[in-house]
């Protein structure tokens, strides 16, 4: 490993964000992103992803804790950080009467050392749309234009807030391919996403936010490995759950039944599957619809969100739950900081 690979391009320590009315959207989170890594922030709606990314982008100062991007405070030292970062916001908001080429040229005029506009349009697959007005683009094409503008400054660090929302399957795959190529070229990418398969396939590491806190973090494999695997099958005619080997001895930590269908949850997949199959062989029965699988990131995500909600509701007295404030408030705030 080179020294660069150890370098933390993004460092977040005990980060907090409290909005005007006193609502704490980010509650002391800590993580770091190494150079050339793709890091995904996942979370349910309102978990605090955008609130966090905006602090990394320097759009607002943290209410507590510390953020460093490329070794600088992105809010207080904006001039040092901004030229080296690319930002793709959730809503680009460019003048809709300009064409794609005009928009890209206009934006390039604001970026020092900008790549040629035609080159970035080519990279995101928008060359054929150069003369089309922004207002005539599809939702997915607008997201690609957002991405093109974020790439104009050839950034060392790229922030992508839900980069593939609104893209069809092909557009999403193209964007993933582009993000992978950027990583190969050494770009550090922090993205938020609602698509778990996007995080699973793309991210080197990820963090799952829930109610402003990190509920789980690690590589996609580490996060899923912490969740139980699943074995499901149909009980043969004439057999009952009690006829199986004792579930505890099989390493089963939970089970559900739906008619004859049985679903076992286990953290010892090999042991549980072996005991079950040896039992079936010995009993001379066939297990219909047998399905043995490790947890997917989606199952891990749902499990983590459920656990976090349960522990939060027992820890908090009623009445302390957040009130959701309209996104419009924050969009206005975003514009104010961006200005
Ligand atoms: N300006 C604001 N004032 C008060 N509360 C706000 C403001 N902006 C956001 N919030 C609240 O902070 C919480 C986190 O919002 P945030 O947009 O960061 O979540 P998110 O994880 O990005 O959600 P989504 O997946 O829906 O985009 C939400 O409860 C939201 O209502």
Automatic annotation (TrEMBL):
InterPro entries in the cross-refs: AAA+_ATPase, ABC_transporter-like_ATP-bd, ABC_transporter-like_CS, ABC_transporter_ATP-binding, P-loop_NTPase
SUPFAM superfamilies reported in the protein's UniProt record: P-loop containing nucleoside triphosphate hydrolases
Residue span, ABC transporter domain: 10-236
Keywords associated with the record: Antibiotic resistance, ATP-binding, Nucleotide-binding, Transport
Pfam families for this protein: ABC_tran
Membrane association type: Peripheral membrane protein
Start-end of Low complexity biased regions: 307-318
Gene Ontology MF terms: ATP binding
Main location: membrane
Subcellular location: Cell membrane
Region of interest called Disordered, as start-end residue ranges on this chain: 307-339
Superkingdom of source: Bacteria
Positions with biased composition (Basic and acidic residues): 330-339
Protein name: ABC transporter ATP-binding protein
Species, as recorded: Streptomyces composti
Lineage: Bacteria, Bacillati, Actinomycetota, Actinomycetes, Kitasatosporales
